């Protein structure tokens, strides 16, 4: 390929941790420790954001804010967000390595991209401390990107494009239109759109579907269809130019984008 220069992947739910399951238990357990129950669906809502803003978004939910007020006599403030975050991060670090399995097809796609001289970048809502638990396992399974940009490396996280702007020069790419952002969350798609890249949503292996691979395979066909349709619609609503089931399906999209660039099209 001549025109696509870089693919920038998200991590959890896109290249590792099928279903983006690692943070969910940590969020639920953390809030339980403060005497406030949240559901897995609530925890999933802000996925893709940096983790402190994620916690702030959860605490701003009317039901959660009211539960906090019932417990503590006041609605949650900045100091409460900090307290919850300080408990959450060690929990997420503790489980991260257990959820570092590379999603099927990712290693093969990474190899195909490298054969075409396409650079591989990554951005993530995880901190570097969390990523330190994930990167070695992913590398051992065949996924080792050229760049990793984490929460805290830039002034803001998603949906701002700052992590994209940091990634592109690290990859030696200066035209955002020559890059593709691949992500399983709405804010990750928005990150790519705001950064001027093509945006590819990942519907089945990630947060939008939110199930382990074995559980996905065990679904009745009609339930799989409606869950998949709902996941696709979420990502399309966020602005995705394409939506695929998993990264295993990416290469035809890369080739199509390369052809569109050759015709002078832009994201």
From TrEMBL:
<feature type="binding site">
    <location>
        <position position="184"/>
    </location>
    <ligand>
        <name>Mg(2+)</name>
    </ligand>
</feature>
<dbReference type="GO" id="GO:0008967">
    <property type="term" value="F:phosphoglycolate phosphatase activity"/>
</dbReference>
<keyword id="KW-0460">Magnesium</keyword>
<keyword id="KW-0378">Hydrolase</keyword>
<comment type="function">
    <text>Involved in phosphonate degradation.</text>
</comment>
<dbReference type="GO" id="GO:0019700">
    <property type="term" value="P:organic phosphonate catabolic process"/>
</dbReference>
<dbReference type="InterPro" id="IPR036412">
    <property type="entry name" value="HAD-like_sf"/>
</dbReference>
<feature type="binding site">
    <location>
        <position position="10"/>
    </location>
    <ligand>
        <name>Mg(2+)</name>
    </ligand>
</feature>
<feature type="active site" description="Nucleophile">
    <location>
        <position position="10"/>
    </location>
</feature>
<comment type="similarity">
    <text>Belongs to the HAD-like hydrolase superfamily. PhnX family.</text>
</comment>
<dbReference type="InterPro" id="IPR006323">
    <property type="entry name" value="Phosphonoacetald_hydro"/>
</dbReference>
<protein>
    <recommendedName>
        <fullName>Phosphonoacetaldehyde hydrolase</fullName>
        <ecNumber>3.11.1.1</ecNumber>
    </recommendedName>
</protein>
<dbReference type="Pfam" id="PF00702">
    <property type="entry name" value="Hydrolase"/>
</dbReference>
<comment type="subunit">
    <text>Homodimer.</text>
</comment>
<dbReference type="GO" id="GO:0005829">
    <property type="term" value="C:cytosol"/>
</dbReference>
<feature type="binding site">
    <location>
        <position position="12"/>
    </location>
    <ligand>
        <name>Mg(2+)</name>
    </ligand>
</feature>
<dbReference type="GO" id="GO:0050194">
    <property type="term" value="F:phosphonoacetaldehyde hydrolase activity"/>
</dbReference>
<keyword id="KW-0479">Metal-binding</keyword>
<dbReference type="InterPro" id="IPR050155">
    <property type="entry name" value="HAD-like_hydrolase_sf"/>
</dbReference>
<feature type="active site" description="Schiff-base intermediate with substrate">
    <location>
        <position position="51"/>
    </location>
</feature>
<dbReference type="InterPro" id="IPR023198">
    <property type="entry name" value="PGP-like_dom2"/>
</dbReference>
<dbReference type="GO" id="GO:0006281">
    <property type="term" value="P:DNA repair"/>
</dbReference>
<dbReference type="GO" id="GO:0000287">
    <property type="term" value="F:magnesium ion binding"/>
</dbReference>
<keyword id="KW-0704">Schiff base</keyword>
<dbReference type="InterPro" id="IPR023214">
    <property type="entry name" value="HAD_sf"/>
</dbReference>
């Amino acid at each position: 390929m001549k025109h696509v220069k870089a693919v920038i992947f998200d991590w959890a739910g896109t290249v590792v941790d099928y279903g983006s399951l690692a943070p969910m238990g940590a969020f639920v357990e953390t809030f339980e420790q403060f005497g406030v129950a949240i559901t897995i669906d609530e925890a999933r809502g802000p996925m893709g954001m940096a983790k402190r803003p994620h916690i702030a978004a959860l605490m701003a939910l009317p039901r959660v804010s009211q539960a906090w007020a019932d417990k503590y006599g006041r609605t949650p403030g900045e100091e409460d967000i900090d307290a919850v975050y300080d408990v959450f991060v060690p929990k997420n670090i503790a489980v991260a390595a257990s959820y570092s399995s590379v999603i099927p097809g990712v290693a093969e796609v990474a190899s195909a991209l490298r054969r075409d001289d396409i650079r591989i970048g990554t951005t993530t809502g995880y901190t570097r401390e969390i990523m330190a638990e994930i990167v070695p396992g992913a590398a051992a399974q065949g996924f080792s990107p050229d760049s990793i940009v984490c929460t805290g490396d830039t002034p803001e996280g998603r949906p701002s494009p700052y992590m994209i702007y940091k990634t592109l020069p690290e990859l030696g790419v200066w035209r955002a239109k020559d890059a593709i952002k691949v992500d399983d969350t709405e804010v990750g798609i928005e990150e790519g759109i705001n950064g001027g890249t093509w945006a590819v949503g990942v519907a089945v292996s990630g947060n939008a579907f939110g199930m382990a691979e074995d559980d996905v395979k065990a679904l009745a066909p009609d339930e799989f269809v409606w869950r998949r349709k709902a996941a696709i619609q979420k990502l399309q609503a966020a602005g995705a130019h394409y939506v695929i089931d998993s990264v295993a399906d990416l290469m035809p999209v890369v080739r199509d984008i390369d052809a569109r660039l050759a015709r002078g099209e832009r994201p």
